[in-house]
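[Discussion] Sanity-checking designs against the backbone

I'm trying to build intuition for which residues belong where. Below is a structure token string of 226 positions. I'd appreciate it if someone posts a full sequence so I can compare it with mine line by line.
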């Protein structure tokens, strides 16, 4: 591990199997300390193209933690999770389901924006992180969970589900149900649902039904918290 840490800190390219954020996660830090440390994370290659690390944000004593996939374009530019269109839709759905968005903690399985461009100067197009990249970023999520100690995790989408529950996770099979699993050494309750960006990508004639489905899943989460 010391060798990996030294090479990573120096900016050298490590084998993909060796990617991990673990050497960058400070022991005993609070959320602000983690956020400062994460700004310098070089645990996988995603930091090279991203504007900045986008760490979790919200109520440090939140009863519910919402975990998404990765920052989007607006999040990457602003440095805060869920500030783009998907975040605004999520806040609306949470409020409608009976969960105060201001009393949640929101974060992502991966803390850097992964994207591709069709041509130079074209808009940045989201690209799903690999399982190895999600695993590399896992120590940050584990540290957030240990500090926030939420009563419930809302899993937003397939990528977040795979990061937390393994590669066999299928959101369509378990959405809107309450799961009990051990996550990063902690017993957790989880309610999976779709990522709000999936609602935005739905066809016009299907979007309202997709939104109602998201609200229905979040109402299940609200029931756990009641």
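Best answer:
Here's mine. Compare freely.
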């Amino acid at each position: 591990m010391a060798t990996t840490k030294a090479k990573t800190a120096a900016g050298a390219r490590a084998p993909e199997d060796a990617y991990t954020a673990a050497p960058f996660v400070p022991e005993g830090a609070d959320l602000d300390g983690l956020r400062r440390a994460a700004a310098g994370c070089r645990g996988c290659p995603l930091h090279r193209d991203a504007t900045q690390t986008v760490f979790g944000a919200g109520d440090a004593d939140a009863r519910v933690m919402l975990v998404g996939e990765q920052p989007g374009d607006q999040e990457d530019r602003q440095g805060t999770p869920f500030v783009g269109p998907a975040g605004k839709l999520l806040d609306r759905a949470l409020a409608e389901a009976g969960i105060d968005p201001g009393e949640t903690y929101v974060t992502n399985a991966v803390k850097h924006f992964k994207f591709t461009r069709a041509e130079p100067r074209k808009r940045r197009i989201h690209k799903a992180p690999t399982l190895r990249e999600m695993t590399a970023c896992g120590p940050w999520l584990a540290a957030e969970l240990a500090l926030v100690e939420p009563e419930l995790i809302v899993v937003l989408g397939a990528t977040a589900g795979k990061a937390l529950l393994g590669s066999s996770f299928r959101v369509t099979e378990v959405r809107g149900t309450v799961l009990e699993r051990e996550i990063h050494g902690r017993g957790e309750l989880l309610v999976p649902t779709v990522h709000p960006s999936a609602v935005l990508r739905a066809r016009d004639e299907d979007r309202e039904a997709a939104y109602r489905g998201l609200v229905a899943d979040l109402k299940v989460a609200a029931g756990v918290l009641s």
